[in-house]
Design brief:
The chain is mainly beta. The protein is built from no helices and 11 strands. The strands form 2 sheets. Strands 2, 4, 5, 6, 9, 10 and 11 form a 7-stranded mixed beta sheet that branches. It has a 4-stranded antiparallel beta sheet with strand order 1-3-8-7, with no helix packed on it. The chain is globular.
């Protein structure tokens, strides 16, 4: 089970840290991805581990502002979001790929006012 938390209403320029707490299995060896979906738009990836060089992929829209990391001891992943913009408003989801399945959380709402 994946549970996101940390969303909320903030003003442009502020920061939020989203958490994704995982139960039922260890995240130590499974990749985690963060995505978001704004109203009327398709879900888009905002942070994902590279399959080639161990780095993290961030799309241009969030590069330099978002950082994904994990605390294995807490079995929790995080998405640190700085300098938030109104266009970052969306429901944010974490997902873990475990063997042949992708497990999703239910999402947490982030709203950024201008």
């Amino acid at each position: 089970q994946l549970v996101e938390s940390g969303g909320g209403l903030v003003q442009a320029g502020e920061s939020l840290r989203l958490s994704c707490t995982v139960s039922g299995f260890s995240i130590s060896t499974f990749p985690m991805t963060w995505s978001r979906q704004a109203p009327g738009k398709e879900r888009e990836v905002v942070a994902a581990p590279s399959k080639t060089d161990g780095s993290t992929y961030y799309p241009d829209a969030v590069k330099g502002r978002f950082t994904m990391y994990r605390d294995k001891a807490k079995n929790t992943g995080y998405l640190q979001m700085n300098d938030l913009k109104p266009e970052d408003t969306a429901v944010y989801y974490c997902a873990v790929d475990r063997y042949a399945e992708r497990y999703w959380g239910k999402g947490t709402q982030v709203t950024v006012s201008s």
